[in-house]
Design goal:
4 strands
Length: about 130
């Protein structure tokens, strides 16, 4: 009697596992089909801008990081006290350079232009280029 019971359980488990595999394969196929049929929402182009911002100290950096990171469309944010820059990667479908610039200025930090891609930050020590 025990042998029959064990064989029955073993057969049942094998059947259950193969049914699960078939079910898993079936649901995977249907989920890929439904994904393909869904109209794909066009994702905006990810753009990058680096603003030249007059930052005084680490608290300024934190204030910009904590606020601008939560602006709609912001994907990545790097704030540099040393370079006086705020580099932002953003979804162009959700926000714009002007909106981001306004958000920084709203925090009380004037934006003094932006770096073009590949342009390096010129560190201003005490020489402001004045000729005497």
């Amino acid at each position: 009697m025990k042998k029959t019971l064990i064989l029955t359980i073993a057969a049942f488990m094998t059947f259950s596992l193969s049914s699960l595999d078939a079910y898993a394969a079936e649901t995977t196929e249907t989920s890929t089909l439904t994904q393909k049929q869904k109209p794909s929402r066009k994702k905006g182009e990810v753009k990058e801008v680096t603003f030249l911002v007059h930052l005084h100290c680490e608290n300024c950096v934190k204030k910009v990081q904590e606020n601008i990171a939560f602006e709609k469309g912001v994907k990545d944010l790097k704030v540099s006290l040393e370079d006086q820059t705020v580099a932002i990667k953003y979804d162009a479908a959700k926000t714009s350079e002007d909106t981001l610039k306004a958000a920084i200025e709203k925090l009380g930090y004037p934006v003094n232009g932006k770096l073009e891609p590949g342009q390096k930050v010129e560190h201003h020590h005490h020489d402001h280029g004045h000729q005497h």
